[in-house]
Amino acid sequence: TGVGNTGNINTGAFISGNESNGMFWRGDRQGLMAADYTLTIPEIPLTLGGGGTLNLPLTGQITGLSINPITLHGTGGSGNPIPVIGHLTLLGQTPEIDIGVELSFTIPNPIPGFPDIDIDIDISVPIPSLPISIGVDADSLLSPITLPRIRINTIAFEDVVIGGPTTLLPVSIGGNVGPIVAQVIHVDPSPGFGNSTSLPSSGFFNSGAGGVSGFGNIGDRVSGFWNEASRASGYKNIGSLLSGLTNVGESLSGINNTGAGLTSGAGNVGGNLSGLSVFNAGFANLGVGNVGFGDIGRMNLGFGNVGDGNIGFGNLGDFNFGSGNLGSFNIGSGNIGSYNIGPGNLGVQNVGFGNFGDYNQGFGNSGVGNIGFGNTGAGNVGFGLSGEGQVGFGAWNTGSGNVGLFNSGTGNVGFFNSGTGNWGIGNSGEFNTGLFNAGRWNTGWANTGLLNTGVGNPGSYNSGSFNVGVSNTGDFNPGRYNTGWANTGDYNTGWANTGHYNTGGFNQGDQNNGFFWRGDNQGQAGFDYTLTIPPISLGLEVSIPVNIPVSGSLGNIVAGEFTIPTLALAGDNLNANIGPIVVSPIVITGPSVDLVVGGVGESIQLVLSGPALGPVVIPVLSVPAGPGLGNS
Questions:
Q1: Neighbour count for residue 321 (Cβ, 10 Å)
Q2: What pLDDT, on the 0 to 100 scale, is given for residue 484?
Q3: What whole-number distance in Å separates Cα of residue 526 and Cα of residue 65?
Q4: Domain of residue 243, residue span
Q5: Tens of pLDDT, residues 102-145
Q6: Name one Pfam family in it (predicted).
Q7: N or C: which end of the chain has fewer CB within 10 A?
């Protein structure tokens, strides 16, 4: 970008190096400007202290506990009895025993002839003391033993307190905040000025992929001004492989071409074209063969015409010669209708000015086929006649309530007015102020619309001249709500815009700022300046002394009374029952609580560090990009 550079990606003149800014550099990356300005707030010490009294009552209870039933049984299943196998030995000593035996018997007739013999024997046998050892073997079964559910009552906390009225809990915090670095401006050294391209570019305020020179281009491998393209040169082209001015598409050269490709020339729409097509001479024309500004249609000559074959300004219709006509084939200005000759006629085939009706010749006639001045009716020839077929001179004014000369309407003030409530000359409409107005409530000259202020407005609510549209301020606007001149679009501010909501001139797109834009939302300038404070480091050391007494007591622990059912013994040599066995309530006196959390000289030490605050973005000035400037 510049003059006489032999290097690459330079911005300036006579540079033989590369990526330099300025003039006459021979090296690379010379003359690059950088800026970096920051505000630094040094580290801020932070010391905090405080505390309070810790006296927290601890209330509540431990809900009742229970021990589920427990079954003691033999192996092989829950219902199997418990085998009982044992051996019992009894040991003892017999006393000394004397055993006496007395025998008394008779022997009958032992010898024949002899008497019976009586025999008495007395025997005493002493038995000494003897040891006794008796062994008993037992082989029996004990039925399964089931202990019932054992329930423990709810355990209440009684007067348990953490701390006390005199227990202090001080807190000391020490540390630092910062340092805080706020970057006010930062510009990296790079070729060009204000470029934001990915690859190096020369020039000013270019963006996109890069490899760009010029001013305000978006894209890659682009030169020129305000192009939005790839591999393009020229002025405000949109697309790729373009050269020239305001082309939209691909593979185009020339001026204002639109198409898919392979086209040269001016004003062509399509592909594989050359030469001149859809050609208008001027700006903001829509159609074919128009010469001037802001014409819509074909073969118009002038400004602000809508239709075909009009010559003049602000005509709405076809083949009008003059200005502000609403209709066709009129010669003059401010006519409503067709085939009128003269200004301010309202009707068809009138010759003169201020006529209201058809086929009138003269001035201020109201009716049909009148010749002369101020006639009201039909077929009158003369001045101030009322009726039909009258010839001669009548009153100075016909109609009613008129003041002036040759007025044929009602309530007019002036000359040759044929309408109602007009003030001026040759007005055929209603409540107009001025000359040759055929519309209503207009102020000016030759207005055919409604509530216009100006000259030759066929539209309505316009301030200016020759506006075919509605609510325009300016001249030659066929569109609506424009401020400016020759705008065929709507809501424009400027000149010869065919799009909408443009600020500037000769824009064919919408919502553009500037000149000759063909796309949408082009040329919008936004500005946003902020101060960004990065995350602020925060380092804290917290010391909390801990010496907290915990005092109180727990309620008694009571296991309720329970009964062990009868146990049955069954075996080979033993059958017996044991029980039932009743276990009285078991009471455990609740313990007292006398604890200390921490102790003298004990404390909790906490170290906190890291980014704790931010980043903080402070908006200094923000102007959003949009159509126009400063609109809210």
A1: 18
A2: 92
A3: 75
A4: 234-279
A5: 656 555 655 566 566 565 656 565 767 767 665 556 566 667 77
A6: Pentapeptide_2
A7: C
